[in-house]
Amino acid sequence: MLNAYNFPVFLLSQNSTSILREAAVKNEEAEKSYTTDVAEFNLVMQTTKAGTHDSKSCLKEGTCLPLGGYSVWSSLPPINISSTQSKPIILLVASMDSASFFRDKSLGADSPISGLIALVAAVDALSRVDGLGDLNKQLVFLIFTGEAWGYLGSRRFLLELDLQTDAVTGLNSTLIDMVMEVGSVGKGSSEGVNTFYAHATMASSATNQTMAALQRAQDSLNSEDVKILPANSSNPGIPPSSLMAFLKKNTTTAGIVFDDFNTVFANKFYHSHLDDLSNVNSSSIEAASTIIARTLYILASKDTNISNSTLAAINTNVSLVEELLGCLLSCEPGLSCDLVKNYIRPTTTSCPSNYVGVFLGEPSSAPYPGTVNDVSRFLWNFLAEKTAISKGDVISSCKQNCSQKDQLCVREKADGKGVCVTSTTRYVPAYSTRLKYESGIWDVLPADSSDPMGMLDPVWTESFWDVIGLRVYTVQDTGYDHLVLAGGIAVTVSAYVAIVVARAFITKALKRD
If we measure between CA atoms, which residue out of 296, 305, 301 comes closest to residue 178? Predict the structure, then answer.
């Protein structure tokens, strides 16, 4: 994906492919024809201003924007921001963006969207459990964007946490007890058995407790169809994941990456446009989601002897998983699906793409909705409602803002009105930690040698592009053009000679008379 090529590459739709095949066959069959079909490219493979060949120069000249968007986090139950949060935090993490050779075809079905769907379905399952306020630990769900581009989402989140900005109000890095990341879980199914692997950081009491909780969750299923295994101890470490950013910040961070592979990636289409809906198994995602939800409940509960009946009540909504697969990974219905439209008004009706996009406007913990992409807005609204504590009560209507400080306005409809719920759900700006937005301009900060994260943080940008496309049309063969030219010259010369001869003949005839 990072290689440079000196020629354009187009990914064609089925219809465009048929048109070009017909043109190619026509050219091949008409070798002696005086016409041929050609393709003309309409694209600019450079920035729109000379001399802006890197991120620093193009940002200064205003010919590009930084890659980024908005990550989303939510807590269950909501955190009382008016009092000091003291409960240890269990952080469940997933990613929402992917990358591929073809930007607008970055679906990332298995990596990472299967993990995202498993997390969302786990939140839904836990939201139906009673007594969550009595848990010993605070559950926090965090969905990053920009992870396919140097983990800019997790890096920025950790920086915001250090700075204690409004985007992370209620969170404290010193209270994070465990980070559990849901990676690729869409290919765990094989011969009817769903097998998942837990890749752990260095051994600690927190990781040991999590491994035990995963095993307890597996046993509660009373089924041989789901297996949870520790990853091979010979692995060099955890697989590529957001957890690596946490470890860069603090090497003692306790964490586990929950994946569908052991020593080798199961997803052979990682970061490819072929990592689409056909590359995942919904039953694998459903099994992973149930295991994760039960594991979180076991870890957060004050009861060390949770009954099987209590765990058996925590189950994934299968229809929700199927809906999310259709909304996030298929053209029909895509983001125009009923589930998404129940929470937001999508800005696009085209096929979904999980490319991170560019950062629009000024970074904010309460951004203008028009600067946030559809997936982030949907996740924010969905999580805010599912983690709210007043779902069963009469909820007041709203338009962008609610009267109480700890309330959020969700499910904004076509009339611009939504409902107020009590929830701790936030947007977190996701862009390079080496960027600063000031007076409408992005500045690139020098790398800080004292910050190991900053030294490794790339600054990714995207130029302003013209509309890219190609057209096919028929032109005459150059040989025929040369023949026409020669014929024209011959006719011209012949005409000139004829005129000269005729003129001489007429002159001679007139003299005789």
Answer: 296
Q: How far is the C-alpha of 280 from the C-alpha of 330, rounded, in Å?
A: 12
Q: Which 3-state string (H, E, C) describes 119-143?
A: HHHHHHHHHCCCCHHHCCCEEEEEE
pTM of the predicted model as reported, rounded to 2 decimal places? 0.88
The residue with greater pLDDT, 317 or 44, is 317
Q: What does the alpha-carbon distance between residue 461 and residue 464 come to, in Å, rounded to a whole number?
A: 10
Residue 437: its H or E element: strand 435-438
Interval 14-27 mean pLDDT: 83
CB of 199 closer than 8 Å to CB of 235: yes
Q: Give the CA distances from residue 199 to residues 155, 253, 255, in Å, rounded to whole numbers and listed in that order.
A: 21, 14, 8
Q: Are 170 and 81 in contact (CB under 8 A)?
A: yes
Structure tokens at 203: 């051994």
Burial of 511 (0-12, 13-18, 19+ CB in 10 A): exposed
Distances (CA, A) of 154 to 142, 147, 217, 363, 462: 10, 7, 28, 16, 20
- State how beta strands 226-230 and 193-200 pair: parallel
Tell me if 475 sits within 8 A of 36, measured CB to CB. yes
Give pLDDT tens digits for 127-147: 999 988 889 999 999 999 999
Q: Using CB atoms within 10 A of its CB, is residue 133 exposed (0-12), middle (13-18) or buried (19+)?
A: exposed
CA-based nearest residue to 179, from 265, 241, 115, 261: 241
The amino acid sitting at 50 is A
Query: What is the Cα–Cα distance from 155 to 67, expressed in whole angstroms?
Result: 14
Which residues are paired to 189 by β-bridges? 194
pLDDT digits (tens, 9 = 90+) for 286-336: 999 999 999 999 999 988 889 889 999 999 999 999 999 999 999 889 999
CA distance linking residue 333 with residue 335, whole number of Å: 7
Q: Please tell me the distance from the alpha carbon of residue 74 to that of residue 387, in angstroms, as a whole number.
A: 7
Q: Tell me, what's the pLDDT at 392?
A: 47
Q: What amino acid occupies position 187?
A: K
CA distances from 391 to 75, 128, 133, 340, 394 (A): 15, 10, 15, 19, 8
Q: Taking a C-beta distance cutoff of 8 angstroms, is the pair 41, 76 a contact?
A: no
- Residue 146 near residue 97 (C-beta atoms within 8 A): yes
What is the amino acid identity at position 422?
Answer: T
Whose tokens are 């957890």? That residue is 243
The type of residue at 454 is G
What sign results for the dihedral spanned by CA atoms 262, 263, 267, 272?
Answer: positive
